[in-house]
Amino acid sequence: MPSLTRVEATARGAAITVESYQVDLDLTGGTELFRSRVEIRFRATAGTATFAEVKPARLLGVRLNDRDLDPDLLIDNRLPLDDLVTDNTLVVEAEMAYSRTGEGMHRFVDPADGETYLYAVSFLDNVQRIFAAFDQPDLKAPFTLSVTAPSQWTVAGNAEVAATPTPGRWEFAPTAPLATYFFSLIAGPYHVRRAEHDGVPLGIYCRRSLAEHLDADAEEIFTVTRQCLDRFHQLFTERYPFGKYDQAFVPEFNAGAMENPGIVTFRDDYVFRSAVTDTEREQRATTIAHEMAHMWFGDLVTMRWWDDLWLNESFAEYLGTRVTAEATRFDQAWTTFAMRRKAWGYAADQRPSTHPVAPEEVADTDEGLLNFDGISYAKGASVLRQLVAWLGDEAFLAGLNAHFAAHRFGNATLDDLLTSLSAASGRDLSGWAELWLRRPQVNTLRAEVAVDADGRYAEVALVQTAPESHPVLRPHRIGVGRYSVDGTVQRDEVGVDPVADGGRTVLGELTGAPAARLLLPNDGDLTFAKVRLDPASADAVPLVLPGLTDPLTRAVLWSEALDAATDGERPVTGLVELMVAALPAETEVIIAEDVLTLSRSLIDRYLDPLARSAALARVAGACQRLLDGAPAGESLQLAAARGWIAATTDADLLVGWLAGRDVPTGLKVDEELRWAVLRRLVVLGVAGETEIAIEAAADNSSTGAERAARCRAALPDPAAKQAAWDIIVRDTELSSRPLEATAEGFWQPEQAELTAAYVDRYFADMPAAARRRTPWTADRVAALAFPRYAVAQPTREAAAALLGRDDLTPGLRRVVTDADDDLRRALVARTAVAAASA
Ligand SMILES: [Zn+2]
């Protein structure tokens, strides 16, 4: 199937204007197919030709103006339309296939109760799996939807229901002009709760088997929704522009959520069936705020083409984090951003596949999909935060409001935004945009400190460097914190200007000041740059960090330590010792969780088996101490327990927890924690298929099936590995979730010998496997199934051979390029650490 190119979209965008879509769907036709009819009214220059896109199971009829067109004219997904007149009507009727991959009309049967749920995902270029369309973001038009479905179902769409003329028939009001990728609906016996705020009707939906869990959190979800809505109404002059605001939690959703106007869809993992930490609640709140930000950035004003994807995602990420921190109880959202989201951004930006936040051109929709990454989200949002630090908040918001006013219900580009921001701030932003938005890769700011005999700073300098591949230095506005051992801080905001300083900025204001125990560049996390402490400050971290009261400062320090270990500048074993020193005193759950997760990836890939075992024992000990000190029943206790389960080798104690023995007071060993314990027991070789089957029988939910699939793939058994591999490379029947769970469980550092033969098989099997699946699923599986623990030169050689082929999907090429670069960095770090200790 050809992917729509930028050139084609530009030509079609200039040639036609779409006036309306009238969509009629019949969802009563069985388990495989549904009926779709669309009537599109559009204007064109008389005598010209264009095409519409549709991906039917069977095309039943096509009528353009007064002519029936032969359905056999459809080539791949394109329906040629010629001899256009000024005002055209296109009618396309088709049988369409339900999806199992979360693209198009997804169909899910709940194993818990046998009920069927549908939802529509049009994201990117998938509306054509539901009805024929001119599927590109700048051909916006109102949609009027009618649906026939079982009469006992709930059906909701982008707009309000206007009429239900007969049982089983829903007719919706026309929407505001929408891009095609925003069309959505949900249909099924959904459970719904309704509320209202400031004149906006609110609804939240989930499948029935999760109803009690949604009800338990309904007040929290509505409260966050109201708080965010109020905050956006304070920040923006344009009110929420799409009428009602429904939020549907739907099964097997691929992304976190999708910003369909009027009906946001979320993955229903956000309806918590087991105990979760406050980080997970915060993440749900941030996602609610992120999607709501899109109602203005993305939905009201839409990018013209996918090269301005960042206009959607960077702004939604920035505003989602900011509004969560400012308006909800999750006031540490910027700490989470510093710790988790920026790690994602830095990793993406240092890879060979890095790209500018705002690329000049994205060639086609397939390439557009590749850019939904840590750069378009986390780096872009960091860059905006830096822009706000530079312009001031008032000018920034004035620019945004002018942008919305100028392009409401239309499309806009980077240049349009810069025009609005420049006008509001009175500054020329072209130089800023060139350095921050058009050039990839990240700078490092390294502190150099000289102290005189009296214990005063003789000189404090920040040395800025850039990688050889992209030798660009940038201006940074940052905080510099000076910390004593008792946590006392003095903070300065300083400008780093490479043009004036030639890459070495002397902080003259600090000369002569008493030297602090620890000097922290980028304190407050205002810029996007790797930071390195001076050696004396680095040595002081284990001493100073546990006493710091500001979680954001601790997050910046932890990030520095993790990044230095990732680069091989400091050994992972040193990072582990820092964890032993500082983790038991940590009070911020997100920091504890992310230090454990991010360090684990290094422990598993950077250390040899002996050193790894020793490190995990140290980590398990630190978790045990954190667990001992954590308040009963609170997030930190759960985070510590999860960390301990993942690191311990004490199978007796783990088995005891499953049986309810020796469980810390306040800790609930519920479904999710039971699966975590079982997974660890499987890897330790203590539990097998029998225990997995018993657990799966006790948890008949779809999540239970995913957890069981992951455990089965992790079994240290040749037959289980073979079965899992067959699923990973061949299965096309399973929905994406159990498939991904299988890929996720397959590789275990403990099983290097057992899985050695599969390293080569990955490179042999994956090209065909990727072609068998839709890009989203194929890319996810390829990434999860990559032999990431086979950190050795032969793995890199196999990757190089694969990348030398010319028949790879763009997604597989990106996945292998990036994963190979992770191997490269791990090998470099191992060599550097070995050399330093030799
Ligand atoms: Zn988004």
Features:
single chain, 838 residues, alpha+beta, five-stranded mixed β-sheet, 27 helices, 45% helix, 19% strand, globular, binds zinc ion
Instruction: Strand order, main sheet: write it out.
Output: 5-4-7-2-1-10-13-12
Q: Catalogue the unreliable spans.
A: none
Main beta sheet, described? 8 strands, mixed
Tell me the β content: 15-25%
What percent of residues adopt helix (DSSP H or I)?
40-55%
Total helices: the number is 27
Question: Ions, cofactors, ligands: which are bound?
Answer: zinc ion
Can you characterise this structure?
Helices cover about 45% and strands about 20% of the residues. It is an alpha+beta fold and about 850 residues long. The strands form 7 sheets. It has an 8-stranded mixed beta sheet with strand order 5-4-7-2-1-10-13-12. A 5-stranded mixed beta sheet has the order 15-16-17-19-18, covered by helices on one side. Helix 5 packs parallel to helix 15, helix 17 packs parallel to helix 19 and helix 18 runs antiparallel to helix 19. The radius of gyration is 27 Å and the shape is globular. It starts with 5 loop residues before the first helix and ends with a helix. The mean pLDDT is about 95. Bound molecules: zinc ion (ZN). The site of zinc ion (ZN) has 5 residues, from helix 3 and helix 4.
